[in-house]
């Protein structure tokens, strides 16, 4: 299952980099090309959403079927393994949340930047008519 988490981490990282590049000031020449690339990548990146839901169900299943370690019923090594498992699940849930938030941000920022470009073109056409 480690490969799924690596793929999700790379997808979240790519989304974050694209959001940062779209929102940095002073990259107007690069922004048009980046906007076109981002628009084309939004549909393939939509596959992150069901993938995250699948991984979230996997975390839930592991949580429900995990042997519970009460006060005196397990050895210190079993207790440590139990705590590590909980920490991994929390880390993975945080990665899922980050990937979904970055996708939503990327979608919103891409839409806003393209709308700003359309409005700027409209302003230029109105100025040229005068």
TrEMBL record:
Main subcellular localisation: endoplasmic reticulum
Protein location: Endoplasmic reticulum membrane
Domain of life: Eukaryota
Residue spans crossing the bilayer: 6-24, 45-63, 93-113
Electron transport listed as a keyword: no
Topological type in the membrane: Multi-pass membrane protein
Biological process according to GO: endoplasmic reticulum to Golgi vesicle-mediated transport; intracellular protein transport; protein localization to endoplasmic reticulum exit site
Keywords recorded for this protein, A-Z: Endoplasmic reticulum, ER-Golgi transport, Membrane, Protein transport, Transmembrane, Transmembrane helix, Transport
InterPro entries: BAP29/BAP31 (IPR008417)
Cellular component aspect of the GO annotation: endoplasmic reticulum membrane
Biological role stated in the UniProt entry: May play a role in anterograde transport of membrane proteins from the endoplasmic reticulum to the Golgi.
Similarity comment: Belongs to the BCAP29/BCAP31 family.
Descriptive protein name: Endoplasmic reticulum transmembrane protein
Organism: Trapa incisa
């Amino acid at each position: 299952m480690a490969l799924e988490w690596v793929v999700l981490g790379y997808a979240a990282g790519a989304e974050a980099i694209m959001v940062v590049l779209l929102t940095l000031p002073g990259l107007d020449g690069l922004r048009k090309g980046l906007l076109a690339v981002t628009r084309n990548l939004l549909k393939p990146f939509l596959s992150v959403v069901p993938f995250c839901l699948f991984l979230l169900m996997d975390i839930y299943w592991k949580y429900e079927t995990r042997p519970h370690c009460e006060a005196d019923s397990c050895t210190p090594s079993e207790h440590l393994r139990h705590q590590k498992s909980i920490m991994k699940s929390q880390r993975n849930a945080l990665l899922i949340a980050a990937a979904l938030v970055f996708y939503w941000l990327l979608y919103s920022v891409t839409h806003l930047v393209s709308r700003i470009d359309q409005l700027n073109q409209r302003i230029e056409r109105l100025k040229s008519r005068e």
